[in-house]
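cache lookup: miss for this entity combination. No prior model stored, computing from scratch. Input as submitted by user K.M.:
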Amino acid sequence: MKRIAAIPTTGDPSLLTESVARATRSRSVRIQSRLFYPYYFFQYRLRGKRLFAKVHSRIGCTVDLISGREALADTPFEPRPETVSREWILEAAITEARARERARSYVCAAVSMKMKWFRSVELRQERSFLYYRPFWLVACEERDKDPVWIIVDGVSGRFHPLPLEENPRAGEMISQAIPFNGGGGCSGKQTEKGG
Amino acid sequence: MKLDQWIFIGYLLLLLIIGYLFSKRASRSIDDFLLGGRSIGAAPTAFTMQGTSMSGYMFMGGPALAYQQGWYALWYALGDAGGSIINISVLGKRMRRLSERLGALSPIEYLGKRYESSAVQIIASVISIVFISVYVFAQFIAAGKALTSLTGLPYTAALLIGVGVIITYTVFGGYLAVVWTDFVQAIIMVLGVLGITVAAVSHLGGLAALNDALAEMDPTYLSIWGKDLAYQGQWGVVLGAILIYSIGYMGLPHVVVRHMSMKSPRTARSALLWAAVWNQLFVYAPYILGLCGIVLLPHLSDPEMVIPELAYTFFPGIFAALLLSAVMAAVMSTSDSLLMQAGTILSRDIYQRYIDKKADHRRMVLVSRLLILLVGIVGVVVAAVEPPTVFDLVIFGFGVLGNSFIVPYVASVYSKKANRVGAICSMVLGAATHIVWTQAGLESVTAIHPFIGGLLFSVLGMLIGNLFGKDPSQGIQDAVEEAKHGRKISGAVDRHSARELAPEALNIARHLREHRLIPVRE
């Protein structure tokens, strides 16, 4: 087990399965587990001058610590400590120093591009921390078809299919125990759709 | 000073004030601005997209061709109207799947990763920068002409003022064209052009009467082969005219920005759909106006002035000046976005990646600014000394970009054996052929449009180059194969999935496999 700082999962799992079933038109939706994905968050104080005014604002940036993808973050969030089985935590492949470099470069580029701002930007880092984002591992089943495995963002509820070579039958995981919600075991929430 | 000039200055000041007020608000909450436009719905967003995509070509190049060639010009409109649909159906799904697998954010990065080659990425970047600049030159000329019409100044003086305003706006101002100023402009432009079209066509007694009047002047205006049947039987030219816009868009580089916190990816999808609908409604109007110009303004010395002249003919001076001011502002907005794009490609994709890896933001801004300055100087020279028409420049820029990139993009998803040598040969031969074909006037000799010539040589370059280069790595070949067939998932899952989570999905799938948490069949 490992103690990590994670964004709290939002929403009720049963509501989640219902909304996923509706969106994917699946006969049933089963939550298998919850994985934790590593990111680094950087918050900057941004200063700059425009034609008629000074810009003085805060801006946040997250860096995916595996693929290195950056994204601007607008919602302030506070991760909370959580204890999770190690196998459900993805390991970071990018160092903090590299992530900092990428975040700064990305924010500068985003400010220039989106704000059409051809001046150098002054960024002062105010805080930074490593955090994990929860993703539900979900099986969507359809009649007479192989189930589709998807990940559902535990915060926003958005989902994406997993690029697995094969789509197996739900529940056939090679794992002795599938911890759920910090080691509590898989609840296997399921939503049946008519027909 | 004339009333028109006061209107123009007043219009720019109004944009400045709107921009200032909104940007002041954005200064307090810059992240909201950067992640922007979320509170605006799909239809207004699409309306704004349509308005901002209207550049000098739509107001000057397209109508001028119709004025000179008659209904033949509609071939270009036909390609334009179907362009986005063809793009989506030919490349859409496969390219999206593959770029998800490769983790590429922009088309140029995509080419570099798919062909596993820095050389491919550098060549693609250079071609993009040069021919985006050509597109900007066309905007300069349009700005010079719009200002001449508004102020009565000589063309060269108007051009210098126009380019000066554009460069100053890009380098020092920026950020003023917030989404609401774009929206206001889009309304003026779309309603203005549609208004003139309705007024002009009604004045002539409808489309049938327009055709009768054209037939009376010269029946060949009604022909699909152009005035005096100049392109009779030249299917190579006609096909080029259709294809240049229908598939040429594939060659336009654009930047995909990934915002994890954006509220709803569905809004973006709906906006694209709305934009396609707007496009169908709007794309033919400028050409129809060109046709009306033949009848209503038969002695026009510069065909590119059809819309400004018709505006003054059918609208009170005040509205015509307002419309022209909006055109000028649109030209400024299009130019500064294109210049920004070229600057970013040079500073990020070339300078920081290959020349100075540790370059800080200040240096990259400097590199971008120097490029803009260079484009400005060359642009003024091109536009002042023997200026080509807006139509010729746009078609040339579009054509070269299309000929450089269509084949490498299509081959990237349809052939897993397409390799880096093939891609380089295809880009270079495609671009070079289009340039030579245009400059040497081979269209009249061969009866084949430069775009078709470039396309043929680009295909040849890919086929021959593939014989010499090393095959792509097994990983790339597998990814291409997978992109061909797609995942075995339902349409609903595919439609509603959030594309921006693709890298996370890829890494999670890998983690599940490595830790033997992967689901397997019985």
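stored under new cache key. The longest strand of chain A covers residues 28-49.
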